[in-house]
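Course assignment 3, question 2. Fill in each field.
Student: A.L.
Task: Predict the tertiary structure for the chain below.
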Amino acid sequence: MSDLYVNAGYQDGNLTPFGPIGIIAHTSNRDFVKRVSDVLSSKRKIRAASPDNKFEENPGYAREDYLIDTSLTRFQTGEGKFSLGESVRGHDIFIITDVLSRNIEYDLIVGRHVISPDDQYRDLLRIISTIKGKAKRINVIMPFVYEGRREKLDSHRESYDCADMLKKLYSLGVANLIVFDPHDERIANAVPLMSIEMPRCQFKMTSTLLNRFGSIKLDAESTLVISPDINGVSRANFYSTNLSLPLGFCYRYKSTMPGNGGRSYHYLGDSVEGKDILLIDDMINSGSTVINTARLLKEDRGAKDVYCLVPFGLFTDGLEELDKAYERGIFKCICTTNLIYAPEELRSREWYLAADMVPYVAKIIDSLNLDESIYDLINSTSRLRDLKSQIRIGEIIDEFEE
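Answer field:
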């Protein structure tokens, strides 16, 4: 590693910015990124105005806006180009991308086309190729990992898309990649020399849920943590351990019985009768696993209320079946983050709750720019353990929003 990267944040005993921050957004997630820029600007203005300010000699430290002027053009052939409206030379660039956003359509020769994850990835490469060699450092914040959903190799005849993506980013000079709660953390093995940070969303989702539903009691007699499948037990165990709650899990296997998509669902763990359930998973794809697991716990096992905590909600089969399940009382709430695109029809649902990750992302950018250690920042263990004492006080505090 070069001296540039080792010493960039440390001069005369004080942390100094790696360079002026520049934030680049894809067109599809511009609103989220604009809010990140606004929060970062507010925090840095307060810090710069303090008596012990150490950053007055760093141009561009506290600004009104950190967004870089950019444009992305799509042609009717499906090709595209990315262009900069201002210089990024010497900047510490943070590209924030949402590969799952589907809120943009453009005209092709044969008709309208909805932007896809493959399009988003291609756009990301366009952005990096435009600024490499000019920016002082390139960082990519990709909350949901592109093609990162396989947890095991099913066949040697399948493509290695996630590994190829990571190697491509590394070869183009990306210094830091930030992904949130990946489906499988072993993806980092594809690029052992690349800095990949994996912040956790657990604290923010749990505090958001508790602020909405104050009746939830975090004690072993009242609440259980449950994983909907065996593969997700480690995720549920993180909640169970740090909240001191019992852990259970469900498992399923193929069945010839009708219904439930040809699968039979079963539960192992303490009795759930009369207790609240925190159902933990890393993503909701179609929603069938959530519905069937919640039905088993609520209707068959007598659970009180089922609350789902899931960082990413894809809802690929629409919302109709989830609406029906909610109306039947099968689950009480589904809490996700706002790290990926959520259409208005989802945000308007009574059962939907979004944990706002904007202050957290802004803090990560601020810390990386100062080359601070972010170990405690990305690991929510201590904050999750502090929730119980905060609940007793009667107010849940998010340190990133203070």
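Instructor remarks: Residues 30-48 form the longest helix (19 residues). The chain has two domains: 3-200+358-371, 202-356+382-401.
Grade: pending
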